[in-house]
Amino acid sequence: MYVDFNGLSARKAYHWLASTVTPRPVAWVSSLSAGGIANLAPFSFFQVVTHTPPTLMVCPLLNSDGSMKDTATNIAATGEFVVNLVPFALVSAMNQTSFGYDRATSEFDAAQVASLPCQKVKPPRVAGVPVSFECRLASITPYPADTPSCHVILGEVVAAHIDEAIVGPNGQVDPHQLDAVSRMGADWYGRTRSDTNFELTRPVGWAR
Ligand SMILES: Cc1cc2nc3c(=O)[nH]c(=O)nc-3n(C[C@H](O)[C@H](O)[C@H](O)COP(=O)(O)O)c2cc1C
Fold first, then answer.
1. Domains identified in the chain and CATH numbers
2. pLDDT tens, 77-131?
3. Which long-range contacts (CB under 8 A, 24 or more apart) does 183-192 make?
4. Whole-prediction pTM value?
5. Which atom of ligand 1 is closest in space to residue 189's alpha carbon?
């Protein structure tokens, strides 16, 4: 099957990209509105960009009416956000926070998600998650510039909260204990806790 992306509808392009570039980790992003309302929403267009400076990328799409999602609006206004990873135990709550609540409603309240304070940024983090990254906005860029469909948000990680239970005696994070969920195509999700995980060492002589 050959798919020519030239002239492909946005819906079809999304379908082929989102259902094949998988599994994508889910950033459960907490932010504060300029008025101080705590917002929480999941984003799977999410990645590590570099470690120097430690930087994460989250890409909220625009709403169908062309407006920015609350997460992007809040980050642009306050310059701060938190990326929480989603444990399998909280997958239903995560899903509920993707509902389009109005800006005056905090998803923490609506989806009954417990929060904890951060140390270096004002937005709260999610309680009961294996990892939360406190981030300061590095850049927010509409993409593409002429007809944007999303905002590429880069955030510098200024601190992390890591559940010690996920760290093994060798100092490495155990993917089974992390048990983070990831997004796949349609309604499918994956877990880092999986019987099909395997280890693979680098080739001998591999240089960093
Ligand atoms: C697992 C999952 C992943 C999602 N990933 C994205 C994403 O990468 N980009 C996006 O724009 N919306 C994504 N969504 C939808 C948003 O979470 C949803 O539009 C949400 O209402 C945005 O909230 P906000 O307006 O408070 O920022 C995702 C939803 C789910 C359940």
1. 21-191 (2.30.110.10)
2. 999 999 999 999 999 999 999 999 999 999 999 999 999 999 999 999 999 999 9
3. 183/18, 183/22, 183/23, 183/24, 183/25, 183/26, 183/44, 184/19, 184/22, 184/23, 184/24, 185/15, 185/18, 185/19, 185/20, 185/22, 186/19, 188/22, 189/23, 189/91, 190/22, 190/23, 191/88
4. 0.97
5. 1
